[in-house]
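Submission sheet (multi-component)
Chains listed below:
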Amino acid sequence: MAQEEQPDTHVTCQLVKHKPVPWLYRNEMPEPEVKTPSQWFSKRWPQQAEEFGTPFLEAVYLDNDLEKHVNPISMNEIFFASILAGDEHLGHKVVFYTPDEEFYFRDPREGGIFKPTTEPKLKTLLSLFLLQCAEELKDSTPKFNLFVRFRKDDELQAVINKARSLLAVDKSFFGADSPNIRTGGREEGLKVAKAFINMVVEVNPQKSLTLTDSYTAFREFCVKNGLLLVERRHFQDLVGEIITEQYGLGLRNDILNSSGRHQRGWRGIGMREDDLARLGLEKN
Amino acid sequence: MNTQQHLEELKVAMKQWAESERILKILRTETGKPLKQPSNEEIIQWHKKNNQTHT
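Outcome: structure written.
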């Protein structure tokens, strides 16, 4: 495909955004027509254009019939990275979780839980926005850069690289005390384990609790409530951490089980039998 | 709210829902578990909630 003709005389460059009708006149005046790619993007994402600048540097020239054409020649990568953050009016949000170096998006269809997504998927989304802009603008707008050049992998990758810093969140974003929940993260297991302990464990110097008994009850609790089941090898670390934090007790190896054998567990805490019964859990 | 107003509201909510789904479909990785199709009332509630949060 040949690049569109663009005479090198009488070419000027512009950075022009969409200007909406002032709020006071919005009932009397019609919305100005969107004529350029920068106007198309800044009309759809006005706040991002205000904060991160005009979407494209555009070349303006007249053809032989003196018709004006506006050709986008360079992308403002920061603006495009910012629109990947998602439209909050739709309940969307995309973040880059720095501890795992992974992008996550909030899925409103599944209770607002954050799920991992990939860089190729974000590139596809960006590519579709560019395509939509090319399709909706008038035919007099040069389309080559919108359709071909800016949708090439290296251009899209440059936007993704900017998004990695612009949309960066730290460990606390999915922390155990944060309202944000992601699928499969360690903190999800921590929240479930904390809820379980607060519901069924009591401080009682006469009692003891083995790791095996606590895991048996925990597994039943998760299955009955449709919760994420933490594997036993991770359960020991998670619950050990919570019990040390809440009750100041460490895991020991001399807890006697019902058969009189030494097991790993805690002395000074036990399970509340009335709460186990209330939750429909059986004591081992 | 009369029927006409309800229909208008549903039309706007459906349009936003379709736009939202178009984007999410790209970001999601398909799983074996199909997503439940929401009712019209659920779509209107979703739309109202988004509008309340961002007005």
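Remark: The radius of gyration of chain B is 13 Å.
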